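Fill in residues.
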């Protein structure tokens, strides 16, 4: 897991218009990302906790 590319456009601002095409592009981009099972996520979180445990 590394850095992700971010858009300079703020999609979270209320009242900002979003076209259907922009929405479709965002969905297609998000579907390209990695997907993990619940077991994989639990393992990754456990490893992360051990790494930063004091």
């Amino acid at each position: 897991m590394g850095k992700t590319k971010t858009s300079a456009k703020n999609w979270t601002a209320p009242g900002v218009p979003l076209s259907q095409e922009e929405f479709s592009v965002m969905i297609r981009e998000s579907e390209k990302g990695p997907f993990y099972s619940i077991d994989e996520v639990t393992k990754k979180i456990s490893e992360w906790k051990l790494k930063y445990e004091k």
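The CA atoms of residues 6 and 39 lie 28 Å apart.
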